[in-house]
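agent: user wants the structure for DUF7041 domain-containing protein from Caerostris darwini. delegating to structure tool.
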Amino acid sequence: MVSTNGKPGVITETTTFQHVVSALQPEELAVVSDIILKPPADAPFTALKKRLCAQYADPEAQRLRDLISGMQLGDRCPSRVLLEMLSKAGARINDDFLKYLFLQRLPTNVQQILAISNDNLEEMADGIIPTSSAPVVNAVAASADQPDLRIMLCEITSPLSRLEARTRDQSRGRNQRRSASRSR
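agent: tool returned. relaying tokens verbatim.
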């Protein structure tokens, strides 16, 4: 019953389209219903395949974004985080980049120790983190060459106050001259 377009062993786009449509589940049919109701004349199977792949495929870029942004160490041991990263990344990321991403999830003091090593990072991190129980606080010191904002604010407000006072005095003088000329 397979349409071969008159050539033995050659299956047409339309035949493949029909076979795939007959095998789809109801929720998949809903995704491609417009293509099923009005299939393209030239390549119906290709259109169907593109839609299904776009809908259900997990794009590599999205997986990498999830890998980079989503995983934090929290209270988990580093080996668990690395295992999760490995399972999400698969073979798509080279080992050096994966090592970089893994190290970014660790505390700074542990990063400094592990940066020079290539072997068993997760085991070493599992051993280092419990022994370095002191919490690390990253702080930024104010630079001595930066002028103090209070001094700058005073330098701006002082001339501004004088300008406001001068403007008030000038407007009072005009008002006094006007009222004197009106009374005459």
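agent: one observation worth passing along. The chain is about 65% helix and 0% strand.
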